[in-house]
Design brief:
Order of helices and strands of chain B: HHHHHHHHHHHHHH
Number of strands of chain A: 6
Structural class of chain B: mainly alpha
Shape of chain A: globular
Oligomer: heterodimer
Shape of chain B: globular
Largest sheet of chain A: 4 strands, antiparallel
Largest interface: A-B, 17 and 20 residues
Structural class of chain A: alpha+beta
Number of helices of chain A: 2
Strand order of the largest sheet of chain A: 2-5-1-6
Helix content of chain B: over 70%
Number of helices of chain B: 14
Order of helices and strands of chain A: EHEEEEHE
Distance between the termini of chain B: 19 Å
Helix content of chain A: 25-40%
Radius of gyration of chain B: 19 Å
Largest sheet of chain B: none
Radius of gyration of chain A: 14 Å
Chain lengths: 100, 333
């Protein structure tokens, strides 16, 4: 089977940023995303996730390389200064390139 | 303090609500692994808001709207006005950035439902009558200050830079403030209680009234741990905010008590109006501010409302506002 190269963009951020981030993803060409609740520690201290206001989410989105570029640019410019957030991309290969 | 007031402080500290809260704080101090799952916290919040709204609605039906509207209006106005003077204080004396000052000001105009509930428990314990419909004041005081705080912050952001790119536009912010889960549940269950009246109360009392104090105690245990985990942040917010978190509630408490007196409430009702004016939001306001004013630093508003003002009110503040009301009413309930 043929595999097509794609990018997986992973974003870990505070739960309250959820709507802003997912809206931006759609806007920048993502056709969907996966979201789950996580906790951990980082530069802005321990994100203890004991109540909704302090909860953290991880968002994963599979996109073509150009879209990954646009997404990371936007996150860097608008989101990093305001929200507790990390984001990175990884190279992946998918089976159905038209799905993303 | 007079012996009466000391007695009131003692009575309040010995309510299960206050003791469970302190137990929760203790759990974090000794690093116990006690921790509630987040869905339980959400579930307890929903129960408390529904129970308090429903009981308030039934009380409005029993008292009649004619008796409720004037103090209710006063409550909404004072809630919305509080940020207008706390903002310049935070800017001028506290040297906060405009957007931080606006966010903190919004928190102090808005209210804490749990502080209100703890105050009704306290009044019940010492046998002081209060108007059951006071829950309506809680419902109408939550949103106005959040909206005013967001508007103050937006105005400041427009002046400084175009940093509003990732912030909610004002329309969405308004919707969040008016229909966010706590306001929606409070107003909605007030309406349900009002429409179903005394008969509705009889049908649901086994669920909404009898277990209420126990569930409140459980919730405060959890809230104690949440507040306790933020005690470390006290060092980061500075001395000004520490003082602000205690002095401002005292001033607003006196204001609320006076307003309750002027609008014809009983001694207990005026105490509750004082408690509401003095309390600061830590559920609805932080969520709304984080979305609408993302440039404001959450450590400031969360630490001051959750780790300073809330513990102060729930232990010492409530009996103090009662003492103020007692003085105003000449000791005659």
């Amino acid at each position: 089977m043929t595999r097509y190269p794609m990018k997986l963009v992973t974003i870990v951020t505070e739960a309250l940023a959820r709507d802003h981030v997912t809206r931006a993803l759609r806007e920048l060409g993502a056709s969907g995303y996966t979201l789950f609740e996580v906790e951990g520690e980082g530069a802005r201290g321990s994100r203890i996730a004991d109540i909704e206001e302090f909860a953290n989410i991880q968002i994963e989105v599979v996109v073509p390389p150009e879209a990954a570029e646009r997404i990371l640019d936007r996150l860097h410019r608008d989101f990093f200064p305001r929200y507790a957030m990390i984001a990175f991309e990884s190279d992946i290969r998918v089976l159905r390139s038209d799905k993303f | 303090m007079t012996p009466d007031l000391l007695e009131a402080v003692r009575a309040n500290l010995l309510t299960p609500a206050a003791l469970f809260f302190l137990l929760g704080v203790l759990a974090t101090v000794v690093k116990s692994d006690l921790r509630f799952p987040e869905p339980l916290y959400v579930g307890l919040t929903i129960y408390l808001l529904c129970a308090i709204g429903f009981k308030g609605g039934v009380a409005i039906a029993e008292a009649g709207l004619g008796e409720v509207w004037l103090p209710g209006l006063a409550a909404a106005v004072v809630g919305g006005a509080i940020p207008l003077w706390t903002y310049p204080v935070l800017r001028g004396l506290g040297r906060f950035k405009p957007v931080d000052a606006a966010a903190i000001a919004g928190h102090y105009g808005s209210v804490s439902a749990v502080t209100f509930i703890a105050a009704t428990t306290f009044l019940g314990t010492i046998g002081v009558f209060y108007e059951g419909y006071a829950a309506a004041f809680l419902a109408v005081m939550e949103s106005p200050a959040i909206i005013v705080g967001i508007l103050l912050g937006k105005a400041a952001m427009d002046r400084t830079d175009g940093g509003a790119v990732v912030a909610d536009p004002i329309g969405r912010a308004l919707r969040e403030a008016l229909f966010g889960k706590s306001v929606f549940l409070l107003l909605g269950t007030l309406l349900v209680g009002f429409l179903s009246g005394t008969a509705g109360m009889q049908a649901t009392a086994g669920f909404f009234v009898t277990p209420f104090q126990g569930i409140l105690a459980l919730f405060l245990l959890e809230l104690g741990t949440v507040a306790g985990r933020r005690l470390g942040d006290l060092r980061r917010v500075g001395l000004f905010l520490l003082g602000f978190g205690v002095v401002v509630p005292l001033i607003h408490g006196a204001l609320g008590v006076g307003l309750g007196y002027l609008t014809g409430l009983s001694l207990g009702g005026a105490t509750l109006m004082g408690v509401l004016s003095a309390s600061a939001s830590y559920i609805a306001a932080p969520a709304a501010m984080r979305l609408s004013l993302p440039d404001a630093n959450p450590t400031y508003y969360l630490t001051s409302s959750l780790a300073i003002t809330f513990p102060f009110n729930i232990t010492i503040g409530i009996p103090l506002y009662y003492g103020m009301a007692l003085a105003l009413y000449g000791g005659q309930p």
